[in-house]
Amino acid sequence: MRINFHGAARFVTGSNHLIETKNGEKFLLDMGMFQGSKQEEKLNFEELPFAASEIDFVILSHAHIDHSGRLPKLAKAGFNGKIYTTPATKDLTEIMLSDSAHIQESDAEWENRKRERKGEALIEPLYEQADVDKAMGLFETYRYGEIFQVSENIKVRFRDAGHILGSAIIEIWVTEDDKTAKLVFTGDLGVKGHSLINDPEYIDSADYIIMESTYGNTLHSNYGDSLENLMSTIERVTSEGGTVIIPSFAVGRTQEIIYELNKHYELTHGGQNNPIKFFVDSPLAVRATKVFTENTNILHAEAQELIRSGDNIFAFPNLFYTKTVEESKALNTDSSPKVIISASGMATGGRVVHHLKHHLWDEKNAVIFVGYQAQGTAGRLISDGIDKIKLAGDWIANNAQIYNMPGFSAHADQAYIMEWLGQYERKPNRIFLVHGEEDEMYPLRDLIQTELDIKVVTPGLHSYVDLNFNDLDEIDMHEVSEANELQERALLDKQIDKIKLMLAEIEDREIDSSDMDREKRQAILRKLNELEDNLMDFNMLSGR
């Protein structure tokens, strides 16, 4: 059996792994979209590294766009097999892909307007709604715990990953030459101790594991402490006249935040003494919340008990769901204190960008990040404390109070990954770490090998490994150079953006040479001459 790592390999997004068996089957684990840096996003438009028509089926771990987002592209390219997943994941994926298609079409239209003015060739969107419809027609769902046969030599079972509604750890049994090996794909492994989504299930055995490592070198703060911090920050900032912006993933994180706010304001305080207005400003989040209400049977027992008691777990006094663009825009002309929960979670697009544009500059306001911020995203730059950032066409000062609350993360941290792996009754022969940046992945690799005595591989983009079912400890790893090249290109893009920001800051500054002595003027002149020379060299090297 061969595993090809075509995405989320030494970075977080674009989850996509091609499995080829000795019997001739070819199937995919996830078909996610690349997000983050410009170089990563460009990968979405590259030719697929396999023939779509030759793929027999896809197994989808969950609905998040970095795991499902290129399924319409796959269908558009000729894939006609089944897409296996859980019922809730199918429901969430449908709304997420439709939203993504709208974004692809809008982005292509905007880009083509610029190209038309320049006389350049027009581009097509990555995919359209028709491609989404085709992909959704290929879905076949199974519940947690069911073992189902996908071919004569392959059977599959979904287990609860505890990440978002419907997310699955995937157990796969593959038979070659009368020998069977078990592959486990964690998808995105969740956390324990949250009260809307169940804890991840433990798995008793595996020969090989493809494992996420998003927070492989991080320890999350306590969930209860994060909740207390969230509530106290909201109440303090709004009491001082400020607005709180919470960039939040539309699917999963938004519902969890609303659920916890409901418990805090409606159940703990009986709905009294809540002068704060909360707005959920994300059409996708509104649709996703409806899916949650239709799949309550797989929610955490606490949430199910609240529902049986008559509570609407996604509603409380002074919570409003915006319905129109006009309602969204009105939030930014209203100076009264409030909380706006809006997507996207990494501030790469969506309505939250406009809310940040109107509130980030004011130090009385606050931005609370409750999820992972990938390298190169606006959320990461704001979180890291950049002085200014371009939002919706304008440079905005980063003056607001910035808070990171990783305790809300739906990804396992290092401690829980080690605990989860420690529950295996039969240890795997190899773990392949994916879905993580190198500074998170490599320390986890070393810890697993030292503490659990399991061999770990960290494959790069488009690398592959050949596995021998006759000797499960024997592997043949083939690395390629593309992963390092991608990281170098991403680093270059990041540095160029940093220089552009510095130049924009110079443009905005008033420099009065009349207040300088002669020595300082001459020193600045020398630096400007050096800068001019370096910019000329840059233009030559970059082909301009």
UniProtKB/TrEMBL annotation:
<dbReference type="Pfam" id="PF07521">
    <property type="entry name" value="RMMBL"/>
</dbReference>
<keyword id="KW-0175">Coiled coil</keyword>
<dbReference type="InterPro" id="IPR050698">
    <property type="entry name" value="MBL"/>
</dbReference>
<protein>
    <submittedName>
        <fullName>MBL fold hydrolase</fullName>
    </submittedName>
</protein>
<keyword id="KW-0378">Hydrolase</keyword>
<dbReference type="InterPro" id="IPR001279">
    <property type="entry name" value="Metallo-B-lactamas"/>
</dbReference>
<dbReference type="InterPro" id="IPR022712">
    <property type="entry name" value="Beta_Casp"/>
</dbReference>
<feature type="domain" description="Beta-Casp">
    <location>
        <begin position="254"/>
        <end position="382"/>
    </location>
</feature>
<dbReference type="Pfam" id="PF10996">
    <property type="entry name" value="Beta-Casp"/>
</dbReference>
<feature type="coiled-coil region">
    <location>
        <begin position="489"/>
        <end position="541"/>
    </location>
</feature>
<dbReference type="InterPro" id="IPR011108">
    <property type="entry name" value="RMMBL"/>
</dbReference>
<dbReference type="InterPro" id="IPR036866">
    <property type="entry name" value="RibonucZ/Hydroxyglut_hydro"/>
</dbReference>
<dbReference type="Pfam" id="PF16661">
    <property type="entry name" value="Lactamase_B_6"/>
</dbReference>
<feature type="domain" description="Metallo-beta-lactamase">
    <location>
        <begin position="13"/>
        <end position="242"/>
    </location>
</feature>
<dbReference type="GO" id="GO:0004521">
    <property type="term" value="F:RNA endonuclease activity"/>
</dbReference>
<dbReference type="GO" id="GO:0016787">
    <property type="term" value="F:hydrolase activity"/>
</dbReference>
